């Protein structure tokens, strides 16, 4: 897939929105565009599906692109019942009549697609993990732990703008920059998505993680994996990337300079080139194997 950024290189498409009912009339919001093999994008915990607006437009030239809001984010509801994000993903694919797909997950979205791949290995053509979380990984960086505590304190006090500032500073800016160093449109989008999540995150719903968690099962994954990291991200995220590189069977690791935890948002041109190249390689490899 060639990406040169010019209007002539793309056929701009209108995304089709929809909802899928998961339980007790609770709805998950999704958007789709394009035709071909399916690529599903899952957002970070400091975002919603708007994180992927650029990719929804770009990759719909060649793929059937799906983006959606996880429970409690964007336009998706959060009921009080226990839930598992990877089971929601299963239902979404079934609703859209998608058998297999490529999956792109950022941060929390990365942990969801890892869980999904461990439960449904036959439905995964490839994984792209963007500064991914991994279920069961224990964070140790003191600055990250202190930031989480401060954000939680502000949230519990109803100081949502303050909480959004703290989380944006942690994840969008990263440990070596301030929010003033980040593009203002990126900053405003992340803080808007965070405040909307805070408004939705009112139900006492328990998320059910994979058991045993993914962190001890990485060697079970036998699909091609691309890991994209931001050079300015936190130490724990660098440690996760190093672990994935050691333990995954088929992995390619790439670093985006001048970006922290959301490289696809801060440096979309570079990210899109990395993803397009990886998907091309996976598709070419699959075609070669089928022809043997």
TrEMBL record:
It holds the Pfam family Abhydrolase_1. InterPro entries: AB_hydrolase_1, AB_hydrolase_fold, AB_hydrolase_sf, Epox_hydrolase-like. It comes from the Archaea. This is Pimeloyl-ACP methyl ester carboxylesterase. Keywords: Hydrolase. Residues 38-268 form the AB hydrolase-1 domain. GO terms for cellular component: membrane. The lineage of its organism: Archaea, Methanobacteriati, Methanobacteriota, Stenosarchaea group, Halobacteria. One of its GO terms (molecular function) is hydrolase activity.
């Amino acid at each position: 897939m060639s990406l040169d950024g010019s209007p002539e290189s793309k056929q701009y498409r209108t995304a089709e929105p929809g909802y899928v009912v998961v339980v007790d009339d609770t709805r998950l919001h999704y958007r789709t565009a394009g035709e071909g093999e399916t690529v599903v994008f899952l957002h970070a915990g400091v975002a919603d599906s708007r994180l992927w607006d650029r990719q929804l437009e770009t990759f719909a030239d060649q793929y059937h692109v799906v983006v959606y809001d996880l429970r409690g984010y964007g336009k998706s509801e959060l009921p009080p019942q226990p839930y598992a994000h990877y089971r929601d993903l299963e239902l979404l694919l079934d609703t859209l009549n998608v058998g297999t797909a490529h999956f792109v997950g950022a941060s929390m979205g990365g942990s969801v697609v890892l869980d999904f791949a461990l439960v449904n290995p036959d439905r995964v053509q490839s994984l792209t993990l963007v500064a991914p979380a991994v279920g069961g990984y224990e964070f140790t960086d003191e600055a990250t732990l202190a930031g989480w505590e401060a954000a939680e304190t502000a949230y519990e006090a109803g100081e949502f703008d303050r909480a959004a500032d703290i989380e944006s500073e942690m994840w969008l800016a990263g440990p070596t920059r301030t929010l003033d160093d980040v593009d203002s449109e990126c900053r405003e989008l992340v803080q808007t998505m965070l405040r909307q999540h805070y408004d939705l995150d009112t139900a006492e719903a328990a998320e059910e993680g994979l058991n045993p968690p993914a962190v001890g099962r990485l060697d079970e994954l036998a699909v091609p994996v691309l890991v994209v990291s931001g050079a300015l991200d936190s130490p724990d995220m660098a440690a996760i990337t190093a672990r994935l590189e050691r333990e995954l069977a088929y992995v390619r690791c790439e670093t985006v300079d001048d970006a922290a935890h959301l490289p696809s948002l801060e440096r979309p041109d570079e990210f899109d080139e990395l993803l397009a190249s990886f998907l091309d390689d996976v598709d070419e490899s699959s075609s070669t194997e089928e022809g043997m």
